[in-house]
Write a structure and sequence with these properties.
Layout lengths: L3 H15 L5 H6 L5 E8 L3 E2 L3 H11 L4 E4 L6 E2 L4 E8 H31 L6 E3 L9 H10 L13 E3 L1 H7 L6 H11 L6 E5 L5 H6 L4 E5 L3 H11 L4 E5 L7 H5 L5 E3 L2 H4 L6 E8 L6 E4 L5
Parallel strand pairs: 6-11, 7-8, 8-9, 9-10, 10-11
Antiparallel strand pairs: 1-5, 1-12, 2-4, 3-5, 12-13
Length: 298
């Protein structure tokens, strides 16, 4: 679960970016005493993610705004479903609506795409995990969205595990150094609680990596036949991760090879934001209510 202070940090940054000196339009056109009730409505089906983001966005703009989130993280919804309802000062609601929608549309898009991958590998041992290919500044929210879609998280950052990829290995073995010995020496320098993952792109690299003490071996861009051969060769001596060439058309066949983990960069770098809208009813003091659809505001 994303920490509340991390959500507040991200939302505050987004609000400051969107209205650095206030909302000139709202403060010019909307009476200070005007109130509104607004509903966040789904324009298409999906998986919801971002309940606490909705709450934080409206609260940080104006704590007088009452927020009722009607969908839980991970809930599936249909087009037309009301996901959240807010009531309070109209200026605050209109200032917050674009940021709330931007973030929740993004998170729900990631959750929805993740759920499709998870469904595609149902009945296999494979876990669908994300990568570090996230939107800068939004990693915490996108990782939560992956979890809300039924996926798992890979390492959060470069600080969390030792992950030797092809470029690391090229430097490590420059001059003909033995790969297994180089990995063992590296392992001696690691904290005893750290995890060692090594990427390989050929079956004949696997034994040396196992001898070097890898906890996870990533089989990168392997054919299906080579994935099956890699799983058989590793034989439970390390976690087997498949990466590269993964999409919704290929993921089921990759999972069927017996790998433990499938990392999918597309979960975060290619997810489409879902179409959600904020339908607002404005009630200005001394005036009759007027309906407005705010989801299309730029």
């Amino acid at each position: 679960m994303t920490e509340p202070r991390e959500i507040e940090r991200i939302v505050t940054m987004a609000l400051d970016e969107d209205a650095p000196w206030g909302d000139l339009t709202g403060e010019t056109l909307i009476p200070e005493q005007a109130t509104a009730t607004a509903e966040m409505v789904a324009r298409e089906p999906g998986v919801f993610s971002g309940a606490r983001v909705v709450e934080a966005t409206f609260r940080l703009v104006d704590p007088r705004i009452a927020v009722e989130v009607l969908a839980a993280d991970g809930d599936r919804f249909a087009a037309g479903d009301v996901l959240a309802r807010v009531q309070g000062p109209a200026r605050g609601i209109l200032r917050a609506e674009r940021i709330a929608l931007n973030l929740v549309q993004r998170m729900s898009g990631v959750a929805t795409l993740t759920a499709r991958y998870v469904e595609a590998v149902a009945g296999t041992r494979a876990r669908i995990v994300d990568t570090r290919k996230t939107t800068p500044g939004l990693r915490s929210l996108e990782r939560q969205a992956v979890r809300d879609g039924g996926g798992r998280n890979h390492r959060r950052s470069l600080s969390d595990a030792v992950m030797a990829k092809d470029n690391h290995l090229a430097v490590l073995t420059a001059g003909g150094a033995d790969l297994a010995a180089a990995l063992r020496e590296a392992r001696e320098r690691m904290p005893h609680t750290a995890h060692l993952e090594v990427e390989v792109d050929r079956v004949d690299q696997i034994e040396a990596v196992l001898a070097g003490g890898a906890d996870t071996i990533m089989l990168d861009n392997f054919s299906l036949d080579d994935l099956r051969a890699g799983v058989e060769l590793i034989a439970g001596r390390a976690i087997v991760e498949a990466s590269g060439g993964v999409n919704l058309d290929t993921v089921a066949a990759i999972a069927a090879t017996g790998v433990d983990v499938i990392s999918v960069g597309a979960l975060t770098h290619s997810a489409r934001a879902l179409d959600l809208g904020l339908d607002v009813a404005i009630e200005a003091s001394g005036a009759e209510p007027a309906d407005a659809a705010a989801e299309g505001s730029p």
